[in-house]
Protein backbone atom coordinates (compact mmCIF):
# COMPACT_ATOMS: atom_id res chain seq x y z
CA UNK A 1 0.00 0.00 0.00
CA UNK A 2 1.03 3.59 -0.47
CA UNK A 3 0.69 6.30 2.15
CA UNK A 4 -2.38 8.34 2.91
CA UNK A 5 -3.89 10.49 5.61
CA UNK A 6 -6.52 8.73 7.70
CA UNK A 7 -8.29 11.46 9.67
CA UNK A 8 -10.46 10.21 12.53
CA UNK A 9 -12.84 12.98 13.53
CA UNK A 10 -15.40 12.91 16.33
CA UNK A 11 -16.19 14.17 19.79
CA UNK A 12 -13.81 13.92 22.74
CA UNK A 13 -14.18 10.40 24.13
CA UNK A 14 -15.53 8.96 20.85
CA UNK A 15 -12.66 6.48 20.63
CA UNK A 16 -10.56 8.19 17.95
CA UNK A 17 -7.18 7.74 19.65
CA UNK A 18 -7.87 4.20 20.81
CA UNK A 19 -8.92 3.14 17.31
CA UNK A 20 -5.97 5.04 15.82
CA UNK A 21 -3.47 3.17 17.99
CA UNK A 22 -4.99 -0.17 16.93
CA UNK A 23 -4.95 0.90 13.26
CA UNK A 24 -1.31 2.00 13.49
CA UNK A 25 -0.36 -1.43 14.87
CA UNK A 26 -2.29 -3.18 12.09
CA UNK A 27 -0.57 -1.09 9.40
CA UNK A 28 2.86 -1.65 10.95
CA UNK A 29 2.18 -5.39 11.08
CA UNK A 30 1.69 -5.18 7.29
CA UNK A 31 5.12 -3.53 6.96
CA UNK A 32 3.81 -0.02 6.33
CA UNK A 33 5.51 3.21 7.35
CA UNK A 34 3.10 4.90 9.76
CA UNK A 35 3.02 8.00 11.94
CA UNK A 36 0.39 8.71 14.57
CA UNK A 37 -0.38 12.44 14.70
CA UNK A 38 -2.18 12.73 18.03
CA UNK A 39 -4.03 16.01 18.47
CA UNK A 40 -3.29 16.34 22.21
CA UNK A 41 0.44 15.76 21.67
CA UNK A 42 0.60 18.16 18.74
CA UNK A 43 -1.12 20.90 20.76
CA UNK A 44 1.92 20.77 23.07
CA UNK A 45 4.42 21.20 20.21
CA UNK A 46 3.19 22.16 16.75
CA UNK A 47 0.32 24.27 18.08
CA UNK A 48 1.71 25.35 21.45
CA UNK A 49 0.09 28.57 22.60
CA UNK A 50 -3.13 28.15 20.68
CA UNK A 51 -6.37 28.28 22.58
CA UNK A 52 -9.78 26.89 21.75
CA UNK A 53 -11.41 29.73 19.81
CA UNK A 54 -12.77 28.83 16.41
CA UNK A 55 -9.78 30.54 14.78
CA UNK A 56 -7.24 28.70 16.97
CA UNK A 57 -8.96 25.34 16.47
CA UNK A 58 -8.97 25.89 12.71
CA UNK A 59 -5.29 26.87 12.79
CA UNK A 60 -4.45 23.71 14.75
CA UNK A 61 -6.43 21.46 12.39
CA UNK A 62 -4.88 22.98 9.25
CA UNK A 63 -1.36 22.75 10.72
CA UNK A 64 -1.89 19.08 11.46
CA UNK A 65 -3.38 18.67 7.98
CA UNK A 66 -0.29 20.25 6.42
CA UNK A 67 1.98 17.81 8.27
CA UNK A 68 -0.25 14.84 7.40
CA UNK A 69 -0.26 15.81 3.72
CA UNK A 70 3.53 16.04 3.71
CA UNK A 71 3.81 12.55 5.16
CA UNK A 72 1.12 11.04 2.91
CA UNK A 73 2.59 12.34 -0.33
CA UNK A 74 5.90 10.79 0.70
CA UNK A 75 4.43 7.32 1.15
CA UNK A 76 3.83 7.41 4.91
CA UNK A 77 0.49 6.61 6.52
CA UNK A 78 -0.53 9.55 8.70
CA UNK A 79 -3.15 8.40 11.18
CA UNK A 80 -4.74 11.49 12.70
CA UNK A 81 -7.13 11.25 15.66
CA UNK A 82 -8.08 14.92 15.95
CA UNK A 83 -11.56 16.25 16.80
CA UNK A 84 -11.56 18.81 13.94
CA UNK A 85 -14.99 20.18 14.89
CA UNK A 86 -15.52 22.48 11.92
CA UNK A 87 -16.44 21.30 8.43
CA UNK A 88 -14.58 24.13 6.68
CA UNK A 89 -11.24 23.18 8.30
CA UNK A 90 -11.75 19.52 7.37
CA UNK A 91 -12.55 20.57 3.81
CA UNK A 92 -9.37 22.71 3.67
CA UNK A 93 -7.40 19.60 4.57
CA UNK A 94 -9.13 17.47 1.96
CA UNK A 95 -8.50 20.17 -0.70
CA UNK A 96 -4.81 20.40 0.28
CA UNK A 97 -4.45 16.64 -0.16
CA UNK A 98 -6.29 16.65 -3.47
CA UNK A 99 -4.05 19.46 -4.74
CA UNK A 100 -0.89 17.54 -3.78
CA UNK A 101 -2.18 14.20 -5.07
CA UNK A 102 -2.11 12.58 -1.62
CA UNK A 103 -4.91 10.29 -0.48
CA UNK A 104 -7.18 11.59 2.26
CA UNK A 105 -9.61 9.32 4.08
CA UNK A 106 -12.04 10.89 6.53
CA UNK A 107 -13.47 8.61 9.20
CA UNK A 108 -16.26 9.99 11.36
CA UNK A 109 -16.06 8.17 14.69
CA UNK A 110 -19.78 8.52 15.34
CA UNK A 111 -20.33 8.12 19.06
CA UNK A 112 -23.20 9.81 20.87
CA UNK A 113 -22.50 12.68 23.25
CA UNK A 114 -23.98 10.62 26.08
CA UNK A 115 -21.61 7.71 25.41
CA UNK A 116 -18.62 10.06 25.09
CA UNK A 117 -19.48 11.60 28.46
CA UNK A 118 -19.84 8.12 29.98
CA UNK A 119 -16.40 7.08 28.64
CA UNK A 120 -14.72 10.34 29.68
CA UNK A 121 -11.72 9.34 31.80
CA UNK A 122 -10.46 12.94 32.02
CA UNK A 123 -13.72 14.30 33.41
CA UNK A 124 -13.91 16.98 30.71
CA UNK A 125 -17.65 16.74 30.13
CA UNK A 126 -18.45 17.07 33.85
CA UNK A 127 -16.11 20.07 34.08
CA UNK A 128 -17.71 21.65 31.00
CA UNK A 129 -21.21 21.19 32.38
CA UNK A 130 -20.04 22.73 35.67
CA UNK A 131 -18.77 25.78 33.74
CA UNK A 132 -15.10 25.01 34.44
CA UNK A 133 -14.23 24.44 30.77
CA UNK A 134 -15.64 27.01 28.34
CA UNK A 135 -16.29 26.21 24.67
CA UNK A 136 -16.21 22.42 25.03
CA UNK A 137 -16.89 20.79 21.68
CA UNK A 138 -20.28 19.13 21.72
CA UNK A 139 -21.37 20.86 24.94
CA UNK A 140 -21.32 24.61 24.31
CA UNK A 141 -19.24 24.75 21.13
CA UNK A 142 -20.46 23.03 17.96
CA UNK A 143 -19.24 19.83 16.42
CA UNK A 144 -20.25 19.91 12.76
CA UNK A 145 -20.98 16.30 11.88
CA UNK A 146 -19.33 15.31 8.57
CA UNK A 147 -21.95 15.14 5.85
CA UNK A 148 -20.10 12.74 3.58
CA UNK A 149 -17.18 11.02 5.32
CA UNK A 150 -15.42 8.14 3.60
CA UNK A 151 -16.55 6.02 6.55
CA UNK A 152 -19.03 6.64 9.35
CA UNK A 153 -17.87 4.36 12.14
CA UNK A 154 -20.48 3.56 14.76
CA UNK A 155 -18.52 2.54 17.88
CA UNK A 156 -21.16 1.93 20.51
CA UNK A 157 -21.41 -1.76 21.33
CA UNK A 158 -18.37 -2.61 19.20
CA UNK A 159 -14.86 -3.57 20.17
CA UNK A 160 -11.89 -1.38 19.33
CA UNK A 161 -10.48 -4.22 17.25
CA UNK A 162 -13.65 -4.47 15.16
CA UNK A 163 -13.68 -0.71 14.64
CA UNK A 164 -10.02 -0.60 13.56
CA UNK A 165 -10.58 -3.62 11.31
CA UNK A 166 -13.42 -1.77 9.54
CA UNK A 167 -11.12 1.20 8.85
CA UNK A 168 -8.35 -1.12 7.63
CA UNK A 169 -10.82 -2.93 5.35
CA UNK A 170 -11.79 0.41 3.80
CA UNK A 171 -8.13 1.29 3.25
CA UNK A 172 -7.39 -2.09 1.66
CA UNK A 173 -10.49 -1.81 -0.53
CA UNK A 174 -9.51 1.71 -1.64
CA UNK A 175 -5.95 0.54 -2.35
CA UNK A 176 -7.24 -2.37 -4.40
CA UNK A 177 -9.45 -0.04 -6.46
CA UNK A 178 -6.55 2.39 -7.00
CA UNK A 179 -4.33 -0.45 -8.22
CA UNK A 180 -6.94 -1.66 -10.70
CA UNK A 181 -7.62 1.77 -12.22
UniProtKB/TrEMBL annotation:
Q: What Gene3D superfamilies does the annotation carry? A: P-loop containing nucleotide triphosphate hydrolases (3.40.50.300)
For whether the record's keyword set contains Kinase, the answer is yes
Pfam (any one): APS_kinase
Give the top-rank taxon of the lineage listed in the UniProt record for this protein: Bacteria
Q: Which residues bind ATP?
A: 10-17
MF terms in GO = kinase activity
Q: Mark the transmembrane ranges.
A: none
Task: Name its pathway.
Answer: Sulfur metabolism; hydrogen sulfide biosynthesis; sulfite from sulfate: step 2/3
Keywords from UniProt, A to Z, are: ATP-binding, Kinase, Nucleotide-binding, Phosphoprotein, Transferase
Give the catalytic activity: adenosine 5'-phosphosulfate + ATP = 3'-phosphoadenylyl sulfate + ADP + H(+)
Q: Which residues form the APS kinase domain?
A: 3-153
PANTHER family from the entry?
A: SULFATE ADENYLYLTRANSFERASE
Similarity annotation: Belongs to the APS kinase family.
What does the protein in this record do? Catalyzes the synthesis of activated sulfate.
The record's NCBIfam families line, in alphabetical order, gives: apsK, PRK03846.1
Q: What is this protein called?
A: Adenylyl-sulfate kinase
Q: What is the lineage of its organism?
A: Bacteria, Bacillati, Actinomycetota, Actinomycetes, Micrococcales
Record gene name: cysC
Amino acid sequence: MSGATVWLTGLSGAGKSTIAHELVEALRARGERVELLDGDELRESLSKGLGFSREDRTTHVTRVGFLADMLARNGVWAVVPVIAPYADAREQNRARHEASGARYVEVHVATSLEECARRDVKGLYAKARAGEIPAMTGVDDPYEIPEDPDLRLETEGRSVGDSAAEVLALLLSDESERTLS
